[in-house]
Amino acid sequence: MKPDWAVWCTLVLMLMAAVLSRTRAVPAPPxxxxxxxxxxxxxxxxxxLSPQEMKAFKRAKDALEESLQLKNWHCSSRSLLRxxxxxxxxxxxxxxxxxAELALxxxxxxxxxxxxxxxxxxxxxxxxQHIHSQLQACVPAQAPxxxxxxxxxHQWLHRLQEAEKKESQDCLEAFVTSNLFxxxxxxxxxxxxxxxxx
Length: 198
What we know:
Elements: H1 5-25, H2 51-69, H3 93-109, H4 122-136, H5 151-166, H6 169-193
Helix pairs in contact: 2-6, 3-4, 3-5, 3-6
């Protein structure tokens, strides 16, 4: 008895349909999420600070500058006070650099005790601590290309680490004071904007 070719064709088509449906049932792995899209990372809220917060920072900055005028401070490294542009870094590197600068800012301002009135730094410090805690959720545990930062990011972090080791407290106060508004109005906004900051 000769095979019924219509039956054979039907069986082959059914087998191919089963294979294709099984292949489609396995979902393709989703693309890796960037740190700014990670759960718990909510930087959009910091695209601009409230007028009340900026006013508190302005009072604190004025008090810090007035205090520094009475001191004979000096920085051994000129590059410390040189302005840096966060846009030089890759998008994933920017939260890392900003987190390091915020950590140093909080450490330095947390030791300032000679301002009048003494509580003028309280509200700014609370705001900076909140920003820092939110930012930590956006910092990748490990760089995509390897465990150690390279290039501009390495230079950025090394500069901060060396300053903390070698510079005086007065120099560090001058550094964080001069960088305070750039950090709040430019760097923070750039990190919040993600890929749109260019």
